[in-house]
Amino acid sequence: MGLETKYRNMVLKIFQLIRSLFIVSVSEQYKGEFSLATNKINISRAKAISATFIVLESILIIISFSNSKNEFPDIYYRGMYALILTAMIVYLLVFSKLEGNISANKTIIEVSGISFACILLYWCMGISLLDQLSYGQIIVYISALLAIAVVPLFSPLVSLFLYCSSQILFIALLPYFQQSSSVLYGHYVNSSTLAVLSWIISRIRYVSFVEDFEYKRIIQEKNDELAKVNKELEEANRILKELSQIDGTTGIFNRSVFDQVMLTEWNRCRRHSIPLSLIIIDIDFFKTFNDNYGHLAGDDCLRQVAKLLKSCAKRSSDTVARYGGDEFTIILPHMEKEDAVNFAEQLRKRVLKEITIPHEYPSILTHLTISLGVATIIPSSESSIKEFINAADQALYEAKKERNKVVVM
Q: Which pTM does this prediction carry?
C-alpha cells in the first residue's frame, strides 16, 4: 500500500511538472490587468511588423518586376509578395481599429494576434519551400520561428500550437520541393531543433513577463497601502495638531496659539510699520456665576461667549483665543485704535443683546455682561509684546471697575 502511494505521488509530481511546462497561470486578481497588458504589447508590435512588411514587400515587388521575367518561380514569389502585402495591410487596419478599445476587444485581439503569427509563419514557410527550387535554404522559415519567439507574448500552449502546426506542415511539404535526401535530413533536424528552441525561448519570455508583472503589481499594492497609511497618519497628525491648538471647553484657539500668533503678527507689523490691536475680554463676575449656577452652566456660558466672539471676528487675520479662565483675546492686525474701540463696543453690545443668560449674582446684575480692554500699537524695537499685553490687561482692569464697559490704553 505504501509503495502504491509512493508511485501515485511520483506520477502526480511528473504530471504537475509537465503541466507547468505548458500552463503558466496568472493570479486570479491580476488576470484582467495581465490580459490588457499583453494585448497592448502584442497589438503595438503587430502594427510595427505589419508596417515593416508593407514597406519591404512593396520594394520586393518593384524589384521583382524590374529585374526578372515572367517565369517560374518568379511568378510564385510575386504572388507570395502580393499575398503578404495584402494580409499586412488588412491586419494593420484591423489592429489600428482594435487599439481604440483594447479592454472591450480582448478576445478579438487575442484571436487576431494568433492568426497574424500563423500567417507570418506559414508565409515564411512557403518562401523557404520556394527557395528549395533555387537556393535550397530555409533561412526565412527559421527566422520566422525565432521572430515569433522574441517579438509577441504568447502563452506556452499557444506558442506550442503555432510551432507544432507549422513544423508538421513544413516537414510534410518539404519533400515535394527538395529532392536531395541529405538536404532533407538536414532541414528536418535544423528546423525541428530551431522550433523546439524557439518554443523554449518563447516560454521563458512569457514566464519572465508573468513574474515581473505580478511582482510589479504586488509592489504597487504595497505602495498604495503605504500611501493610504501615510495619508491616514497625516490626517491623524493634522487632527492631533488641531486638537492641541483648540481649547477643549470653548472650541476656539487656546493660549499656546495666542502666543504663537501674537509673536508672528508682532514681527510682521513691526517689519511693515502697521498697527496691531489687541482686545482682552472678561466675563463680569464669572466666579459668582459659577458658584451659584454651577460649573456646567459656567462652561455653557463660556462656549456661548466664545462662539459670538468668533462670529464677530470675520477677517482671516483676526485670531480669537481663550486666554485663561473666563478671559478671551482677539488679535487684530492692521487695525487702528479707533476701529478697535468701535469693534470692542460692538462686541459688548452684542453680548448684552444676544446672550440672554440670567446673572443675578451680585444683585446689581440681571444678565451676563463682559468688560473689554483695548490696546493698539505700531510695534518697534523700543516696544515689547509683554508691555503691549500688559497695556491691554490694564485697560481691562479699568473696565472691570465699572463692568460692562470698554476701556482703551
A: 0.63
